[in-house]
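Lab manual, section 2.4: Encoding a predicted structure.

Procedure: take the sequence of the chain (216 residues), apply the prediction step described in section 2.3, and record the output as structure tokens. A sample record is shown.
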Amino acid sequence: MPNYSNQSFLAADDEEYAMLIEISEEFHKQKIDKTAREKSGSATEIVLRNHLLKKNLNLSMLPDVTIHGSKIKNDLLLLKNGVDPNQKTFPVDNVKMVIEIKNNAVAGKTLKNGKREDQNKVLRAKFNELEGITNVKNFAVIVLSETLLPPRTPYKWRFKEEVINKENCKVFTLVARQLYPPGGLYIKSNIEEMLQKNQIKKTGELQKLINYLKCL
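Recorded output:
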């Protein structure tokens, strides 16, 4: 795992910080007007999509989109130039990449053997099935933030390329945190407090993500 401790502290004018704040605000708007606003997806999905659209990327605009031949629902699809993004399902030859959006990783359900389900392995199974059915070759997981900084050890259930174990799948974590704040990550004051206390850092992976998507 990269040593994020050597990265710079997140600043109020960083795009990653804007994302954290916008997601907390969108989350609370959805609580007030749940049915109407959730038609565009989860708060994290909406905000990340909007920021990536500003980078001149052609992305699917609706939540739970599918690819012809498969019923598997996807958070986001990177589309070829000129493809209409306002569709619910896309022909295989319109799709460059399948993208999974996560606010942060969580432990999976408890299995019959008492162990926790590893979400990395769940994603691998999903991506393998998609690839087998549709022949789409490129996959990415975008994680907004994760507990990766001392004094705690990195979060056990974080998304890791080596556990997903697909050569054509990349994981990008945009913000590294020291902790998961009491009350959660959707509370705006928690984000502001972590910034003031220098408890969050940039990972440098936002630009890597943009470069990667643009090169496909």
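Check your result against the sample. The two ends are 25 Å apart (CA to CA).
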